[in-house]
Amino acid sequence: MADPVSPAGWTAGIALGSPLPEGVYFINTATYFERSKAGSPTIDAGVNIPVVAWSTPFKILGGRVEVLGIVPELAVGVNPNTTGGLASSWRDFYNPAALVGVAWDLGGGWGFANYVGAFAPVDTRLGNTLNLGGNYWTFLELATLAYNRDNWSLTANFTYSSSGNDRNTGVAIQPDTAQIDFSVSRHINKWEVGLVGYGSTDLGSPSPLRTLGLYGKKQSQFALGGLVGYNFGPVITQFYLTRDVAETNYAGYDTRFWTRVIVPLWNPDAPAPQRPLITK
Predict the structure, then answer these.
(1) CA distance 58 to 44
(2) Where is 81: in which H helix or E strand?
(3) Strand stretches in 108-235, DSSP E
(4) Could you give phi then psi for residue 63, rounded to 5 degrees?
(5) DSSP string of 123-154, one letter each residue
(6) Euclidean distance between CA atoms 163 and 167, whole angstroms
(7) Nearest-CA neighbor of 249 among 214, 206, 203, 209?
């Protein structure tokens, strides 16, 4: 009831469209968010999204093949700090995912990539109760455009997801969704400052059997915020804060605080210089 299967906003500030140098990278994005509205339950949640990215030595039509592995974790509290049996909380794994894509350097600072993959089903109490991390497969396509030049970074990551039926009930609980995560930032020495945002929408209404009644309705949201980052070389950190400026059927406006760390785990050694065949 909080998001599409691919959490809205989680790729904001990441230039997925720019090919990574060959190697293996760890990217961890975490968010804490709060939603409250008079007459509706108060929601507190934390999502941790660890990603291992492998930028392979292989190329297709000049683009580098990249592989992403994701195993998210989720904690949710409903009506925290209340009594009388109104408060509840859950913690569990979210749907893990694997994506394979090709990233092209288009020149002039521009890059484009397209990833395809899927979120695998998880049969958890949290998913069965709140439909957060469901027992269904979700196909995912992620198309991303990036610009990095003259100390400016622009990113736009478009996601389409289509979910199958719940494997316990045979009911299509999760609708198809579309979302965009975007950012514009400026690099000043080792610092990065900029604007971020995201929007998501259901492409159809979910089954009326979806949990808690209201969430059987079509949902959409749009959020804006600010970002600050620092490059420790080679570790990169980012922090951003977002707030919904529009929402439909979410029973409140989200305020989300995000943190991210990017760590290179391995890069191939540079080739040794070759000795000339003829010397004087």
Answers:
(1) 43
(2) none
(3) 110-119, 138-149, 152-163, 177-188, 191-202, 220-231
(4) -100, 145
(5) --HHHHHH-SS-SS-EEEEEEEEEEEETTEEE
(6) 11
(7) 214
Q: Which of 36-45, 68-77, 144-153, 227-236 shows the lowest mean pLDDT across its residues? A: 36-45
- The CATH number of the domain covering residues in 23-266: 2.40.128.130
Query: How far is Cα 20 from Cα 99, in angstroms, rounded to an integer?
Result: 15
Left (φ > 0), alpha (ψ -120 to 50) or beta: where does 168 sit?
alpha
Q: What's this model's pTM, rounded to 2 decimal places?
A: 0.88
pLDDT, residue 137, reads: 93
Is residue 13's pLDDT more than 60? yes
Find out whether 251 and 41 touch, Cβ atoms under 8 Å: yes
Confidence of residue 280 (pLDDT cuts 50, 70, 90): very low
Contact yes or no for 180/161 (Cβ under 8 A): no
Domain ranges of the chain: 23-266
Mean predicted confidence (pLDDT) in 113-128? 85
| DSSP assignment letter at 29 | E
Torsional sign, CA 182, 158, 260, 73: positive
- CA–CA dist 185, 62 (Å, integer): 28
What pLDDT is stored for residue 127 in this prediction? 63
203: its two tokens: 């492409």
Per-residue DSSP letter, 215: G
